[in-house]
Amino acid sequence: xxxxxxxxxxxxxxxLSFAGPERLQAPGVAMRELPHIDAILISHSHYxxxxxxxxxxxxxxKGGAPMLYAPLxxxxxxxxxxxDGDRSRITRFDWWDKASLRGLELQFLPxxxxxxxxxxxxxxxxxxxxxxxxxxxxxxxxxxLGYSKDIQDIAxxxxxxxxxxxxxxxxxxPVWYRNSHVSPDEAVRIxxxxxxxxxxGMHWGTFPMGQERIDQxxxxxxxxxxxxxxxxxxxxVLRIGETYRVPPREAASPATSL
Length: 258
Fold this sequence. Notes:
Blueprint: E1 3-5, E2 39-41, H1 52-59, E3 67-71, H2 74-81, E4 90-93, E5 98-101, E6 104-109, E7 129-134, E8 137-141, H3 150-157, E9 162-168, H4 184-193, E10 196-202, H5 216-228, E11 235-236
Parallel strand pairs: 1-2, 2-3, 3-4, 8-9, 9-10, 10-11
Antiparallel strand pairs: 5-6, 6-7, 7-8
Helix pairs in contact: 4-5
């Protein structure tokens, strides 16, 4: 099953073609090189996570449209902007809602963030993280989040932890940005509290969203791992375009316990 999360292939994370954060790294895989995509998970409506042009192209892929899984309100935007009114391939989610896809369970999770695409629609659509699970494997996608009690709530529902997580580590400076994003130190804390076996740092190095250096997040992540006793094997960053095959559960070294 091929799943994309928040696919953005645009040159800018902006409603404008000539202004706004500009991409500094090409996509790790070009859209024309993708396999057939079965499903797309959308976390929220911000331009660096929700791209009209990317979703239109993916929806019209050869072999049939993917399923689109979206927060409340984003489903309406998809119908208006991507699917030409067809809702048959759109499933909308409130927090904690679940759906099944070819042996997988998809669940939308509450996290601390916000949404908007213009000046007058702040928080009119929902946002969240995703869990994708099947017997013997579980994956957590953080979307955008600030650190909050939601992490403990998710950990309580997923007592066995997660085999793999993609956790944001960028756009954390200045400090007040942390209402919306987590620092590398907080990302490692989330890794530990969710009992993740292997985490990958994301949401850095592509669009300049924070005031830290574009390459600062991996450096601060290394410090956070050292301070919290987490190995590089347990929480890494990938090279652009790198493929990571998750080791079988019995071969994976567990994350440091709290």
